Amino acid sequence: MTTPDPRTELLxxxxxxxxxxxxxxxxxxxxxxxxxxxxxxxxPGFLHGGAISGLLEMAxxxxxxxxxxERGDEAxxxxxxxxxxFMRGGVRQTTFAVGEVTRLGRTMANVEARAWQDDPAKxxxxxxxxxxxxxx
Amino acid sequence: xxxxxVAEIAAAHGGFDPRLAISxxxxxxxxxxLGMDYVGHGEDWVELAIDWREDLVGDPNTGVLASAVVIxxxxxxxxxxxxxxxxxxxxxxxxxxxxxxxxxxxxxxKVYGRGQCYHLSHxxxxxxxxxxxxxxxxxxxxxxxxxxxxxxxxx
Lengths: 136, 155
Fold this sequence. Notes:
The complex is a heterodimer of chains A (136) and B (155). Chain A has 136 residues and is α+β, with helices and mostly antiparallel strands. Chain A has one domain: Thiol Ester Dehydrase, Chain A (Roll), CATH 3.10.129.10. Chain A is 20% helix and 38% strand. Chain A has two helices and six strands, in the order αββαββββ. Chain A has a six-stranded antiparallel β-sheet, with helices on one face. In chain A, strand 1 (21-26) and strand 2 form a beta hairpin. The N and C termini of chain A lie far apart (41 Å). With 155 residues, chain B is α+β, with helices and mostly antiparallel strands. Chain B has a single domain (6-149), classed as Hotdog Thioesterase (Thiol Ester Dehydrase, Chain A). Chain B contains four helices and eight strands, in the order αααββββαββββ. Chain B has helices spanning 6-12, 18-25, 29-34, 67-86; strands at 37-41, 45-50, 57-59, 64-65, 92-101, 111-120, 124-132, 139-149. In chain B, the strands form two sheets. In chain B, strands 1-2-6-7-8-5 form a six-stranded antiparallel β-sheet, covered by helices on one side. Chain B has a two-stranded antiparallel ribbon with strand order 3-4. The A-B interface holds A 12-18, 38-44, 48-51, 53-54, 57-58, 79-86, 89 and B 3, 5-6, 28-34, 54-60, 65-69, 71-73, 75-76, 93-101.
């Protein structure tokens, strides 16, 4: 069992309800894990696509927060949309996800979030997300 | 207790009945965690709903639901719209989904999702849908996506 990163405290109620925890950094962005459980199961034996999407959205949000913090930027952000490709079925095991901020501009951010189980090179699902950045 | 699969339920009732299916799917697994309810259906659409709940919140400052709750709702509603249009259950998986968030789903508000299958090919079900808070003319999200049949194809 991995010790959760103190940043897990920052995850919203939805993420905590599905037992998501931040376990460290992967390629410079927060790495989140989600254990397999009945509450994230879709068809018997497989993860529900919506639960994987939830994990990816949490990874994307954590990645933007981290990237903004790194550059001392106090912008807030709002999700505009998401496109999700389901590539492999998620089986009865722990799933990992990380977001990569592919562009952090002045008015918007692009994030690619990936989820995998055994091998980061074999993603089960990839999400591309757009966020609107706002500064007061 | 062994969970009944959608296929077993459909077979036992000589077709696909979304109201009956959700009485199982809405109580098991992720659908059960979210508490998905049946609202209505037509020839090619199914509408489901999820009550607002504290533990489904994505932003504790505003009480707005996590956007992934809308994805799960629309994934199930659009998926079931295909079986409803086919009038039978066939195994399928989500190939892709796109969700545009027009506005947040506010604190305390029930979220409804209507999914429609607007075209079926041999292997692909093309779907679209709208999420709202009770008035479909005031949508909170638009969805489009595709499902691919696994195993038997439409001949």
